[in-house]
Amino acid sequence: xxxxxxxxxxxxxxxxxxxxxxxxxxxxxxxxxxxxxxxxxxxxxxxxxxxxxxxxxxxxxxxxxxxxxxxxxxxxxxxxxxxxxxxxxxxxxxxxxxxx
Length: 100
Description:
This protein has one domain: P-loop containing nucleotide triphosphate hydrolases (Rossmann fold, 3-Layer(aba) Sandwich), CATH 3.40.50.300. Strand 1 (about 5-10) and strand 2 (about 20-25) form a beta hairpin. The protein is globular, with a radius of gyration of 14 Å. By secondary structure, it is of the alpha+beta class. It has three helices and four strands. The model has no long low-confidence stretch (mean pLDDT about 90).
């Protein structure tokens, strides 16, 4: 199994992030520490959504896009992830509206 190192996450219109937010990750263990309702869990959910997509369900409000889209009608609803797999750099971009 390849060794995966996350380097950078960018989310736009996702959870509490109406505008673009960029998080650069260091080598080793990264600790997210902030007050309640500031987006720690949304950041982790965003990483999963970039990699796997947002589930397509019959109840989009509870389980799909409605759960993750920012409430203030963001211009963009997307995510980007930079990572290394066995030292080789990779980049993923996902438009959450089209789930591509």
